[in-house]
Amino acid sequence: MKNVTDSFVSLGHWPFAGSFGFNTDILATNPINLSVVIGVLIFFGKGVLSDLLDNRKQRILNTIRNSEELRRGAIERLERARARLRKVEMEADQFRVNGYSEIEREKWNLINSTYKTLEQLENYKNETIQFEEQRAINQVRQRVFQQALQGALGTLNSCLNNELHLRTISANIGMLGAMKEITD
User: Fold this and answer.
1) Domain that holds residue 147
2) Measuring CA to CA, which of 46, 72, 77, 110 is 20 to 30 A from 28?
């Protein structure tokens, strides 16, 4: 915080006109800017991010448990369908002479509908997991951005008082005037 205040205070001590210039050394300025941004994000977003990730982890685990229960129910239905299939096959042996083709058609219809049901349940489970993951990622991104922005604004507001603000504005006006004189 002291470095931020010092940088604003030092704006008032810059000499005008002759020695004003831009720091074009990109290797010297970018690491400083990146380290400040990363530090602010880590400092303000660490707790919120871990809480959000823990909450999302629990929701995803609950969704997986629910999907597993649905899968178990589908397996039970599949077992019942297989038992029914065995029953139909026994009846088919009894009625083979009278209607073998009709029973065979029933058997395949039953198998196909069971497999379609299983595929639909598996697709639903996968879509639910993907949707929840994407939603969790979006929520985490929004929360981190909001926290970082609030932290940065809070830091700036706590560091700037009226006198420092007026001195910064005056220094910037002076620099703009000097730049105008140089261009004229």
Assistant:
1) 34-183
2) 46
| pLDDT tens digit sequence for 35-75 | 888 888 888 878 887 888 899 999 999 999 998 999 999 89
- Whether residue 79 contacts residue 61, with contact meaning beta carbons closer than 8 Å, is answered with no
Closest CA to 62 of 141, 120, 128: 128
Q: How many whole angstroms separate alpha carbon 56 and alpha carbon 69?
A: 20
- Taking each helix axis from N to C terminus, what angle separates 162-183 and 2-11, rounded to the nearest 10 degrees? 50
What tokens were used for 113? 């509908």
Q: Please report, as a single letter, which amino acid is at residue 139.
A: Q
Looking at the domain assignment, is residue 164 inside a domain?
yes
Q: Is 3 a domain residue?
A: no
Q: pTM (2 decimals)? A: 0.31
In the chain, the number of structural domains is 1
